[in-house]
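User: For a reading group we're discussing how well predicted structures match intuition. Take Acyl-homoserine lactone acylase QuiP. Before you show the prediction, I'll give you the sequence so everyone sees exactly what went in.
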Amino acid sequence: MVRMRRLFRLLLRGFIAAAIITIVATALAIWLMTRSIPDYTASFNVEGLSAPVDIVRDAYAVPHIFGTNDPDVFFGLGVAHAQDRLWQMTLLRRIAQGRLSELFGRSTLAYDDFMRRLDLAEAARSSLSAQDDKTREALNAYAEGVNAWIEEINKGALGRGAPEFFLFESSIAPWRPEDSIAILKLFALQSSGQFQEEVLRARLSMLIPPARVSDLLPASFANDDRNIPRYFDQFPNARLGAIRFEPAELSRLSPLRSPNLNSSMLAWAATRNRTVSGNAVVAGIFDTQLAIPSLWYLAGLELQVGGVIGATIPGLPVILSGRNSSLAWSGTTSNIDDQDLFIEKLLDTGSREVLTPAGPRPIVSRPSVIRIRGEAPVTIRLERSENGPIIQSDLFGLSSVIPEGHIASLAWTGLSTNDTSISALMGLMTAKSTDQGFLAMRSFIAPAMTMIIADEENLANQFVGERPIRDPRNVFGGFMPAPGWLWESQWRARGVAKPSNADDSGMQTQNDSNIGQQVLSPNIVRADAKDFRLSRLERLLEARDVHTRDGFIEYQQDTISPAARGLLPLIAKNLWFSEPPAPSGTLARRRADALQMLADWNGDMNEHMAEPLIYTAWMRALQQRLINDELSKMAEGLPVIQTLFLERVFRDVDGASIWCDVVQSEEIETCDQIASLALDDSLLWLEETFGRGDLSTLRWGDAHQTALDHPILSWSRGFSFMSNIRLPFSGGDTTLFLGFSAGASEDPFQADFGSTFRGVYDLSDPNSSVYIASTGQSGHFLSRFYDDLGRLWRRGEYVPMYLERQLVNAGSVGTTSLLPLRN
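Assistant: Thanks. Here is the predicted 3D structure of Acyl-homoserine lactone acylase QuiP, as structure tokens, for the group to look at:
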């Protein structure tokens, strides 16, 4: 008994000691992590300033920066970005430089290999000298501001700047001006993705006829891609190889946009004669992959020409969408085909040479060392042909279409070593009229964008950025990898377009689809032949004679799916009210109930409704039945519901209804039969997944939730609980209030892609503009400003941003004072 008591006391003491150690360790960890939450009321003496700078944070921690000259203001922006998003900035820089593996080991080696071969970091360094003096001065001042905060972190033991830095031993390298240019180039790369589609089109063409490829991948308005030859016609030795899919948890570290996440961005505006206020109103939506923190960071800059407010990207000292006292602008990344893959033929000469239109040419190369955490470094050779860098990657299936004895190179406008895009954006911020704004944007190169710019008198739009001019004899026209040794495959030149003023209706709407009809030439646009979101927006705009700021906000929150409204009557026309009476609880009864519910539905993708879930599950099952037999394992690469494909099949466009016939069966199936079977598939899946026989109890928000996941902390269950945000979400793939699903097998309807920034600018009042981003300003998961904006964003609410300091001060949570360090 005594022995038992002694053992009990020992165990109790051990438990108490362990508990105390755990509590102390947890408290210490929390203290260390909270040390990196910046004090917005502090003052700092820093090097690099000519005069004091105030960073005034409004009620949502949006910084408004005031200084006596522009370089000091950009210095302040560098400090603000680093205070709130230093980890995100350094992560973006590592992705652009191809240096992820130094932190994350071999799991990210493929990303680093690809980015090293593109060599964006070197192109950014070379582009620095091409910037105008004002921009170089701003870039230098911004870098000094970032470095000043890094110095404060080291000097004041401020928790290494962010909790994520405690997980890695690597030190924070000083920020350089060219790092900002590299991040803009990375944004350009992730805004495109045409070379990935070229590979997918080539793979499909090896399995199905050109007309059937067009069903799945409509090419453009200006081209009849049914006449494009099969990939085998140009490369008879090509063999369709297997494709490797990257782990889902690494997707937010990828330098490439997922080819499944290809929704368009939108911008629109009304001239003074179509608004209640008598001045132009501009609205913009930026669609990007959902993550926390968001790609966007709201900021206000008090420059010498006046205030500028809007959306920035941490690492970039420019406002991509916003307004100043005279001008408002919003850009959308145009889905322009500004990339081409070339298949280069290697010559068997014993040296590294390829065949070109002018004969054999050597490949230029140099070594590059990739350091890998926990392993020996890997040395690769960065090679370049006359067409562009040689890329070797399985990230998007490229190696699966390269014939033996060949290699692939990439031509892309964003590889320019004289890229003045950041200078163009700098000029736009300080412009006072549409003419000045578009004059500044003439030097913009990448990403290819569509800009709407409005002042008090004028409203105009323009495609900005370089675009390739292809030879009309190019057999693939940029749709598939082309032979690099043929003259007709080469780019003839690069061009830009001229501004287009508002038409007689006084309205401008832009996205990557309709811009192709207005200002671009053939073989440029890669967009859906019918953009459902744009058609919905145009209908809303046409329904009213005059518009207001609040009306534009209402349009941005619209959750009606034009695809559902168009597809359901087409697919279910012979199924509605055709079901005989069936007993309760049977599949036949659930089928009849589902069809009745969808017949009464108006297409609203509201998170509280059952119909959006039934509709989306049905369309997913329908697409799987249509493509699985023809494409087999390749169908895995098309998990997203292709609304245009379904429309073409059920309208039998160019014989597309042949997809309804199951190849392996003797019977010729009809589309109605396949639609009915797919409905049964979806109803069974819904019951298995949600365990509810009563369809009316389903909720779209149960399946459609925001995937606001942290790129790194989401890997750990403990941290992901604190860092990730999953909330029911309205909207869908084709709604203006976007909630695009990538179609992952585990969570096929999870919202992976959305309108992560929305803004509406009314030029009648400099203080009436409203903005919202998908997450808070802070990247620190223990900060109260980590997710505060995200809650408003989900509910469709906005925050104001002011150009007048008096209004900014009124709701301020603090002012950070930066004082010049006097020796």
